[in-house]
Amino acid sequence: AHAEFETVAKQAVVIDVNSGQVLFEKDPDTRMPTASMSKVMTAYVVSEALAKGEIQKDTLMPVSEKAWRIQGSKMFVELGNRIPVWDLLQGVVIQSGNDACIVLAEGVAGSEEAFAQRMNVAAKELGMENSNFTNASGWPDPNHYSTPRDLATLALAYMKKFPEEYALNKVIDYTYHGIKQGNRNPLLYVPGLGGDGVKTGHTEEAGYGLIGSAEQNGRRVIMVLSGMTSMDE
Predict the structure, then answer these.
(1) Do residues 226 and 20 make contact, with C-beta atoms less than 8 angstroms apart?
(2) Which of 32, 37, 66, 95 has the CB geometry, 3.0–4.6 Å to 201, for a possible disulfide?
């Protein structure tokens, strides 16, 4: 039986991971702008590159002008600096740094465009049928979209295949270049919930969204909410 509750989110899906049962859904297959929720795919592709030995945690990646200039949420990378992959990954996952996404994309694939192609290959392999990625950060683009169901599929694959990288999602804050930033995921701050991920997102076009996951007594639930009008919602 579906859970008896409503949500102000425009789109939503809640899944019991152990059984695969969908507990709640609301337009879960309608395409939507992802905002920073698609940074989970960026982290996934980087984790794949680490697993394949293409890069190492301590591989230094140069900061281009494109990465340095990007606006929105930032890790505050320094132009011309070379930053280790593991630092950049924390900048993506914990700080939601658009700049860190571009540094990693260029370092892994040569350009952000080439990295986006790798994101789309990964999406197809995971069966994400209603998703397309054009950049590494979730920067607004009409051709950059996903769905709640696809993002839930991605989150599940991410936590199962790359548990060490996924564990970064529950880190409360990260300091880089003397700037301390807190994780934006509200689930991490609820006592006893068991929240350990995954990623928030916000742009004017997308509204506020959250890929959330929590585990209690061996039972894990993943939810994806999109299109809310505030952090409070």
Answers:
(1) no
(2) 37
Nearest-angstrom CA–CA distance, 223 and 130: 17
- Catalytic residue, chosen from 10, 36, 131, 226, is 36
Active site residue: 47, 64, 73, 96, which one? 96
DSSP state of 78: P
Catalytic status, residue 36: yes
Residue 111 · residue 120 · CB < 8 Å: no
96 classed as catalytic: yes
Cβ atoms of 207 and 226 within 8 Å: the answer is yes
Between CA 107 and CA 42 the distance in angstroms is 12
Is residue 39 annotated as a catalytic residue, yes or no?
yes
Q: What is the value of pTM for the model shown?
A: 0.97
Measured in Å, how far apart are the chain's first and last C-alpha atoms?
25
